[in-house]
């Protein structure tokens, strides 16, 4: 689970506290038992430490037997070095491989990370777009939501538009809401 909250005073203090740590302490926090600590560490690395070492640590996490480590690794790769994205070409194929992960949270984060990279670069290709389109039919609504947002970040083909429009009638209300957002993005 990735914690993205910055809504409370606690969240703001925790994020500031993480940023005041040295990089070794931050790397150690990536495996902390508390998902919030791991998430704040990952966010700090994404923004402040877009280094070759951070990239390699994230890549190593992708092969962990622990799903939460694969999830954090994918999360970091999706935004490492925003907005310059120095590792986008290396990260995308690794994230595409995670589409086949047996943990659905890892799949959700890998799709979301791909969407983020696509939104900053012109990196989407037909093969990966087709795989994302397949995810819009997945039983898990979180995967469908991630997929529709990835499509909104991709090249707008007729097939992409048709898929987003179909999701406006999804059985899940939240999927329909995100499909509306995606529709607004592609029509903008």
Give a verbal description of the structure.
The chain is mostly helical and about 190 residues long. The chain contains 11 helices and no strands. The protein has helices at about 10-20, 25-30, 35-50, 50-60, 65-80, 90-95, 105-120, 125-135, 140-150, 160-165, 175-185. Helix 9 runs parallel beside helix 11. The two termini are about 30 Å apart.
Any chance you could write out the topology, listing elements then pairs?
Elements: H1 9-19, H2 23-29, H3 35-48, H4 52-62, H5 67-79, H6 88-97, H7 104-120, H8 126-135, H9 141-152, H10 158-167, H11 173-187
Helix pairs in contact: 1-3, 2-3, 3-5, 4-5, 5-7, 6-7, 7-9, 8-9, 9-11, 10-11
Can I get a quick summary?
With 188 residues, the protein is mainly alpha-helical. Helix content is 69%, strand content 0%.
Q: Give the integer mean of the pLDDT values.
A: 93
Helix content: 55-70%
Catalogue the unreliable spans: none
Major sheet: size, sense and barrel closure? none
Strand content: under 5%
Terminal Cα span: 32 Å
Structural class, from secondary structure content? mainly alpha
- CATH H-level superfamily title of the largest domain: Leucine-rich Repeat Variant
The CATH topology of the largest domain is what?
Leucine-rich Repeat Variant
In total, the number of strands is: 0
Instruction: Please state the overall shape, judged from the principal axes of the Cα atoms.
Output: globular
Order of helices and strands: HHHHHHHHHHH
The CATH architecture of the largest domain is Alpha Horseshoe
**Class of the largest domain in CATH?**
Mainly Alpha
**How many domains make up the 3D coordinates?**
2
Number of helices, where a helix is a run of at least 4 consecutive DSSP H or I residues: 11
The radius of gyration computed from the alpha-carbon positions, rounded to a whole number of angstroms, is: 16 Å
């Amino acid at each position: 689970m990735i914690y993205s909250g910055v809504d409370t005073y606690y969240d703001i203090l925790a994020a500031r506290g993480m940023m005041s740590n040295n990089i070794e302490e931050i790397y150690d926090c990536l495996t902390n038992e508390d998902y919030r600590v791991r998430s704040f560490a990952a966010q700090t690395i994404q923004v402040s430490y877009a280094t070759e070492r951070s990239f390699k640590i994230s890549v190593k996490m992708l092969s962990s037997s622990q799903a939460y480590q694969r999830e954090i690794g994918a999360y970091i790769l999706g935004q490492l070095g925003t907005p310059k994205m120095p590792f986008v070409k290396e990260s995308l194929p690794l994230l595409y491989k995670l589409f086949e992960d047996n943990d659905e949270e890892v799949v959700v984060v890998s799709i979301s990370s791909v969407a983020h990279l696509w939104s900053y670069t012109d990196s989407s290709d037909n093969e990966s777009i087709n795989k994302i389109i397949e995810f819009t039919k997945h039983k898990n609504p979180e995967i469908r939501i991630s997929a529709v947002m990835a499509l909104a970040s991709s090249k707008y083909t007729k097939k992409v538009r048709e898929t987003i429009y179909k999701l406006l009638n999804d059985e899940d209300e939240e999927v329909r809401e995100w499909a509306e957002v995606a529709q607004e993005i592609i029509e903008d």
